[in-house]
Specification:
Helix content: 40-55%
Strand order of the largest sheet: 1-2
Number of helices: 8
Structural class: mainly alpha
Order of helices and strands: HHEEEHHHHEEHHE
Length: 304
């Protein structure tokens, strides 16, 4: 064992599965880009796949409250991969004042029909919400496990978790993708889903429900006169860390399902874009710029 070897992350099966699919996609794109008949489109496909791989790595790292700039993806000669902490990190010197930044890579509006566009955009929003929700639930469960008496912080996390979750479950006429009842059922979360949505309604609308008892009473003095009024409130339920961890596990399964759907949707967008002449895509000009970040990209390397 090399005691000087960089620290490696011990990934869960879910985390490894999330990243592994994109590792294989990057490998395929890299082979195509190195082929004799490689074109500019194959190079763009490699860049896109690499960006998606980094996004998934960032998701795993952020869930663990780690700094993404401190970790990188490594490869072994047998094809296995791992995530390790970078060594000998040095701060990036600030750019000289007045220096111009590289122009970056233009982003053009994808030439797809409105339904595919809306589904892809909405799936991306749901994926971000679920990823954020996993982190919020983890922080909330940790607070309770540590015995925190910071009611304001606990309530803020709890309300945020409820609103974020139900937002992924409440479609309206503008949405083309959301977490469906079938998806929740497949992830084993139907019972908990019903409960969470009921609690959310209470937090948002102060609805009357079976999870609490409230009333208004009066205080009677020794002389049998009314001294004043008092509001009573008794909560009949309370979230325990185990409940939050179970909720978190269901959300993680939903997140993996949404990521799979999002991959398929983005593949469809890419296929549609490749079927259209580049001149047509570029006709209306770019809608944004993707700044180059070659100095910040996690570099792949092979073990000797």
């Amino acid at each position: 064992m090399n005691v000087n070897a960089p620290e490696r992350l011990d990934l869960s099966e879910e985390e490894r599965g999330l990243i592994d699919a994109m590792v294989r996609r990057v490998a395929e794109a890299k082979s195509a880009a190195l082929a004799a008949d490689a074109t500019e489109r194959t190079q763009m496909a490699l860049a896109h796949a690499t960006g998606r791989l980094q996004g998934r790595m960032d998701t795993v790292l952020l869930r663990r409250h780690l700094k993404t700039a401190e970790w990188r993806l490594g490869h072994q000669t047998d094809g296995a991969w791992y995530i390790e902490r970078k060594v000998n990190l040095t701060p990036t010197p600030p750019a000289p004042q007045g220096a111009s930044l590289p122009p970056g890579q233009p982003i053009y509006r994808a030439p797809v029909d409105k339904n595919l566009r809306r589904r892809t955009i909405n799936a991306g929003s749901v994926a971000r919400d679920l990823g954020f929700l996993v982190s919020v639930l983890d922080r909330l469960a940790t607070l309770i496990e540590d015995g925190s008496d910071d009611f304001v912080l606990r309530q803020a996390f709890f309300s945020t978790a409820l609103v974020t979750y139900v937002r992924t479950r409440n479609p309206d006429k503008r949405q083309a993708y959301w977490v469906t009842d079938k998806m929740v059922e497949d992830c084993g979360g139907t019972e908990l889903d019903d409960y969470v949505r009921g609690v959310r309604d209470k937090h948002v609308a102060h609805s009357i429900n079976a999870m609490e008892q409230t009333d208004v009473g009066v205080l009677i003095g020794e002389k049998h006169d009314v001294l004043g009024t008092v509001l009573t409130h008794v909560s009949l339920t309370e979230w325990q860390p185990a409940d939050l961890r179970r909720f978190q596990a269901i959300v993680q399964r939903l997140a993996a399902r949404v990521e799979t759907d999002l991959d398929a949707l983005q593949d469809s967008v890419e296929a549609a874009a490749r079927a259209v002449p580049v001149s047509v895509i570029e006709r209306d000009g770019p809608i944004g710029m993707k700044a180059p970040a070659s100095g910040e990209l996690r570099q792949e390397r092979a073990d000797n």
